[in-house]
Amino acid sequence: MGLPSDVQREANDIPWFHSIDLGDGVVTPGASGPQLPEDLFPPMEGKSVLDIGAWDGYYSFMAERNGAARVVALDHYAWGVDIAARGAYWTECAAAGTLPDQSRDLTDFWRPELPGRRGFEFAAGVLGSAVEPVLADFATADLSEVGTFDVVLYLGVLYHMKEPLTCLERLRSVTDEVAVIETQAVHLQHLENDSILQFYAGGELNHDYGNWYVPTLTGLHALCRAAGFSSVTTVQGPPPPPVPEPESLRTRIGRRVGRIDRRDHLSAPSSFYRAVVHAHV
Length: 281
Ligand SMILES: C[S@@+](CC[C@H](N)C(=O)[O-])C[C@H]1O[C@@H](n2cnc3c(N)ncnc32)[C@H](O)[C@@H]1O
Known about the structure:
Layout: H1 4-12, E1 21-23, E2 26-27, E3 48-52, H2 58-65, E4 70-75, H3 77-80, H4 83-96, H5 118-127, E5 132-135, H6 143-146, E6 149-155, H7 164-173, E7 175-187, E8 197-199, E9 213-215, H8 217-226, E10 231-236, H9 249-256, E11 271-280
Parallel strand pairs: 3-4, 3-6, 4-5, 6-7
Antiparallel strand pairs: 1-2, 7-11, 8-9, 10-11
């Protein structure tokens, strides 16, 4: 590789999802927000790690940097779909009030030269990485060819799945120790103990027609257990409830006569957030 300024210039010509520190002050200009902090992950040293939905490979390279013995970066859509052409089609659909034909991802929007993998390949080259890329649709791939791994990362993928339970069963079957699942989740005020999956069909969620199901935290735990994981630990949950203000005399009287529900003080307002759980085998 050339001078850092040349490497940065080359990196700037690639569309990036992840901001990856390539050393010597070179950072890829990623479109995604900040990545998850390392302390939300289990120890990776000496482990085999599978990163499903790796895209530019931020978490694959993180696992390698933290001493993983082997890392496989698996992806499909972000590597092969012509995102710009599909985006234009989705804009047409939104204007016409129709739902897109999702099968076009694998027909007229599919680019066999994998333009979306350029970022991963560039970063791997600069870092001198041994992360192994695998092109596969995890929802349908032959899992005996994927193999099993101590730690499996499933970050930002679940809500893109049309069949979330089946996909978590498939995740369980490639996991030997622990899967780290990060997903869009919803906190519903006063329903925090309810197992709920919200369904989006019309691109209402972030204008992305590829977003389908959003669980409550209880729903996410239930899905993982139903998929065969033996226990689930929350490492990033919903926003905390607001600190209760000292009750006025009026509120105290209202509560005593049953007009004010105590729960109003204990549950945060409904909101979306990103949940992270460790699902143990
Ligand atoms: C929101 S991005 C998350 C990228 C990265 N894991 C992160 O958390 O920053 C979702 C990724 O999952 C990939 N993906 C979605 N469905 C997939 C599937 N069925 N098989 C493999 N990858 C998939 C997409 O191509 C994309 O790279």
